[in-house]
Structures are given as structure tokens and as C-alpha cells.
Amino acid sequence: MSKKSLLQSMKISPAKFVMLALLAVIIAGLEILGELLDALSQYSQGLVPSPVNTKQLLVWGLMGIALWMALTVILLAIWKMGNASFHGKQSACFIFKKKIYIWLLIITCWIPCFIAYFPGIYSYDGEPQLIQYTSGEFDNHHPIFHTLIMGKCYDLGQWLMSKGIAIDGLAFYSLLQMMVLAFALATVVNYLIRRGAGRVFVWMSMAMFCVFPATPVMAISSTKDTLFTAVFVLVIGKILEIYRANSISIKMALELALYAILCMLFRRNASYVFIIMLIIMILDYLISSVKVKKFGWNLKAGFIAVCLASIVLFSITEKSIMMATDAVQGESAEALSVPLMQMARAFKSNQEEVTAKYGEELFAYITPVGLNNYRPLISDGVKQGFNNELFGQDKMSFVSLYLRMFKDYPGSYVQAFLYMTKGDWQLTDTSHCEVYKDWWRDRTGYLITDAVPVFALDYVKKSDLWPGLRECYEAIVTDCCYRNIVLVNLIFAPATYVYAVILCGLELLIKKRKDLFYIWLIIGFYLLTIIAGPCVLVRYIFPLMMLLPVLASMVWDDVSSWKDVEK
After folding, report:
1. DSSP E strand stretches across 100-141
2. Could you report the per-residue pLDDT of 38-60, keeping only the tens digit for each?
3. What angle, 0 to 180 degrees and rounded to 10, lies between the N-to-C axes of helices 169-194 and 538-546?
4. Do residues 26 and 96 make contact, with C-beta atoms less than 8 angstroms apart?
5. Is 40 exposed, middle or buried (0-12, 13-18, 19+ CB in 10 A)?
6. Any idea what DSSP says for residue 431?
7. Between β-strands 297-298 and 293-294, what pairing exists: parallel, antiparallel or unpaired?
8. Rounded CA gap, 445 and 539, in Å?
């Protein structure tokens, strides 16, 4: 059988095969690059001989070719089976008749995890945020809106305890977060049903939402990323609904604006995404000669108006919250993770030379302690030594210093970026489980399920209601036992979801789906903010995980019908 007939039998076009094969080449190449970086790191510690030799390079070359062939087969299989499941027989299950049934099912599946970790998972930035709330000293390093929500739940728990009712405030926060996230995910499933997605595809989506360990654990974790994920998913879902309806009503516009504002309130980097999208939409509107009109509305103008209004209202709301709480502005270093890591690695690798040439100028911006705090996986140590005040006064001198050091030490700059983003592009990488290892938390795990108190303040009273189930979750999210199971470990890998976003964008470009590509750009720009972030953590990738069924539907959905399933 010829290659062409084989592809026809698999219902894969030659163009699709080339795209998937090229993507497999890139992924395989990056896998080998990741292995080389690991070997170089071990070599620098004196643990292994130099990995740069003819024999080792030949071995990696052969491994790369074998991996490319395997990945090509895997990608073809995923594409074929996913497409078939999306266009398969639709489910007649009563659960999918109403969104509230889906919502209830998702929450029901999360309750065991909630009981196992009752009153919730107090982790990540929960403690410093509650310190801000109880002390009244706010800054917008953490979203103040989210801090206030956590604080009000804490107050409710304290009030009940004063009445003799021993319920921790974190329990109310966990329940609130569960309900909001479940609503967003139920909206996704409802959208898939209305688009006519097959039952296998829908139930696989439900499995990811209901039982995939990351979902229930994140649903009860005290981090802003969970609520951000919920509203970000709702933004994409609402835009798709408007696009499918080919009109934007007042109700739709208000809902979309509300979700967009909440997105920006929960994660400030979302505002950069919407500002960039606003500029792109305005430029497209001005140069496009095609105006899509229905019911008196111009769809493009409607999106522009909603986006502009959302950005303005977010700015007003954020400033109002900061004024009401007397909050101070967060540090500039939060937006400079990548350049600070690059400069710190250049210093660590060439300390005497850098000190002699740039010492006084460099130390003015980053203290020697901060530079020596360099850890390849996370930028927090370096940022602690950054002079935010000086940067605010003279940004251009910092930019000039950064560029001059880049000219002298391009290798250090490239390595710093590769090491800190490794989890975003290497499928077999596990560095995202070790970001805090040998650092101030000294904690490893796929997700952090307990806070190591920085200030030893006792805000949360933990219970042990279901220790057996908790141990099962801990085996996955703390001990990372999934790493020992071939292919299953790919489901947990952050890079899997990064590649899913990239694959979706490539397919939309090949199909020349400019309309859907604009929607994809929102997700793509968010991905860029993750890559420019301080480290690779699953909680940052979580929005992409929850949007995976939506991304797949954008690629495989070639049906024009819209089912009248009750919302």
C-alpha cells in the first residue's frame, strides 16, 4: 500500500501528515536538548563526564530519530482517534440535558478530595495574602480582589468559631471556588454538547474535569490561578458562543465584559493579553473590507467595544480597590523574571569577569546576594535582590546594561531561558516538580498541598477526615508516582498542553480559519505570559489544561449546526 493510500485510509491528508511529522521533529529535538541540558548540569557538578563527545552525540542522534518516529505515530493516532470521537455518536445521557446536572456531577466528583484535604489545601500564596488582609497592609503583588475574597471567607470562619461553630474559613473559600470552577467547566461541556460532539469525546472531557487529579486538587487550593482559570474559560466559551451565533446581544456583551474584568482582577498579566488583542482587532477592523452584520450589530465593532470597555472598567476597579485598601504598587521585578535570570546566570558563570566589567552598574540594580541566589528553575531568589526603586527611576540604563551583557554572554542568556522554561517544552521533564527543592519552601511535588509557613502564622486548622484517600492523592501530586508509567506521564506533563495550544494554532492557520484564529490568539498570548513568568508550575498551566477540549473542538468542529440543548 502506498503512503498516499495509507493516509487516505486513515483519513489523514498529506498536508496534515507533514504538519504532524514536522511537529514531531521539533518535539523530538527539544527532548534531546533537554537531555543535554540535564547532562551539562550534572557535568558542572562533577557528577558525570563531559556529555559533549562523538559517542554521546551519536547516541542522542539515534534516540532523536527513534523518538521522532514514535511521536509521529502517536500524534497521528491522537489526531485520528480524537477526530473520530468528536464526530462520533452523541450521548443521550440525561445528565447532558441541562447544565445544572453537569455542574452537580462535577462537584459531586470533587467532594471526596475536599473531604480528604478538609477544609481545603492551604498553599502557595495563601499565607502572605491572609497576612496582608489581617494586617491591613496591602500591595498588588498578589491580586487584592482575590485577597479580599479569601479574607472575607476567613472572617466568616472566625465569626462562626466565636459562636462555638468550629468551621474553618478556608472551607467556605474551597466551596466557593469549587462552585465557580465547576460552573465554568459545565459551561464547556454544555458547549460541546450543543456543538454536537460525540459521546466518547464528551465523556473524556468529563473525566478530565471530574477525576483527573490536578482538577479536584486545584479546585480546593488557595491560589488565585483556580478562579482565574474559571473566568478565563468562561471568556473563551462566551466568545465562541457569540461567534457561533454570529451576533452579540447586550446580554452577551455584558457577560463577556464581566468575565474579562474578573480575568484581569485575578491575574494582571491577563490585562496585557486583552490590550494586545484590542490593538489587533482595531487594526483588523480598519483594514478589513468585510463587515459581518446581524440584527443591526457589527460583530467586530462589538468585540472591540466590549474589550475596550473591559480594560477601562478593570483599570477603574483596580484603582478603586487599591484606594479603598490603601494598597501600594507591586514590585517591577515581577515582570522581569527572564532578563533577571539571564543576567544572574551570566554573573554566576563568569563572576570575576562580570564583576570587573559591570560590577558597580550591575550591583546597583541587583545585589550580589540576589545574583548568588540564582536557581535555574525559579527567579524568586534573584528578584529579592532587585532594586525596584532604581529601575523605576531609570529603566533605560537597565535595558542598556541588559543588552550589553547579552552581547558579551549570549550563551548564558540562552541557557538561563532554556533551564527556567524547560518544563514548557520537554515532555519528559520533571523540573516543575522540583521548583521549590533546595529553596525557601524546600518542597517537591506536582502540586503543593501544604503550606510551609513562612511566618509561622496559624490561619488554618487542618482535619484528617479521610487519610486513606489523602494518601492516594499525595502519591500522585507530591510523590509524583505517575512518572513511572510510560505515556501516562505525558498526561501530567505541562509541555503536553503547551504543544496542544501550538498544534491548534498551526491547524487553524493551515485551514485559513482567521475567525477562530483570533479566538486562539487570546489563549496563545496567555501562553506567552506563562513562558515569560518566574518558573514552570502546573497551576500556571492549569487554564490550558481545562481548555484542552475547547481547543480540540476548534480544530475538529466542521459542523455548522447548533443544537437547542437547554443552557
Report:
1. none
2. 888 887 776 667 777 778 878 88
3. 30
4. no
5. middle
6. G
7. antiparallel
8. 12
